[in-house]
Amino acid sequence: MTARVLLTVWRHGEAGEAFSDVARELTERGCVEVSAMASDFRAWLDTAGLPVATTLYCSPLIRAQQTAALLAQQGYAERPAICAGLVPGAIPEGFADSAFDDCAHVVAVTHQPFLSRAIAFWSDDATLAPLAPAGYTTLQMTCFERGGAAVLRHRPDPRSVGQEGFS
Fold first, then answer.
1. For 5-160, which CATH superfamily applies?
2. Of 136, 130, 112, 114, nearest to 6 (Cα)?
3. How confident is the model at residue 61 (pLDDT cuts 50, 70, 90)?
């Protein structure tokens, strides 16, 4: 990685039941929470003077694609690109710095338990709360190795948005 990259990892919104895990779609609540978190995220980026994401990746699962589409509607990228490396069961050690060259801010929409493992691995901090559906964490990445990132913002639960003192 030639320069520092902002990486925001986002858990897909709440998903309903389906005949298979792959086919689970966002619920109405999931759509509302993703949209609320996206607005919160945009306001924070503007206040902090940080760049809006220009690259948006998502898992190939329907609920992740729907979450990414809602983020794209908020102006985070033209359209999401599907990334097979973001499926459930992915490992943070599998990410290569070169995949993020020439990117200032990337958003990746994916699943648990990958998210918790990746955030803990890259930040070298296992004490952060796991991301609930629609939660996100923004990391300042220097490399994709253990301890290669600093947590800039951790919004693990959409129900906490707007609560005093929540960062």
1. Phosphoglycerate mutase-like (3.40.50.1240)
2. 136
3. very high
The domain ranges of the chain are 5-160
**Six-digit token string for 157:** 């639960």
Structure tokens, 1: 């990685």
Label each residue of the chain as H, E or C. CCCCEEEEEEECCCECCCCCHHHCCECHHHHHHHHHHHHHHHHHHHHHCCCCCCEEEECCCHHHHHHHHHHHHCCCCCCCEECHHHCCCCCHHHCCHHHHCCCCEEEEEECCCHHHHHHHHHHCCCCCCCCCCCCEEEEEECCCCCCCEEEEEEECCHHHCCCCCCC
User: In this structure, what token pair is assigned to residue 88?
Assistant: 């459930």
The answer to whether the CB of 4 falls within 8 A of the CB of 140 is yes
CA distance 27 to 76: 22
Give the model confidence (pLDDT) of 84-128 as tens digits.
Answer: 888 888 877 777 666 666 778 999 999 999 999 999 999 999 999
Q: Provide the residue type at 58 as one letter.
A: C
Beta strand pairing status for 55-58 and 105-110? parallel
Cβ 34 vs Cβ 134: under 8 Å: yes
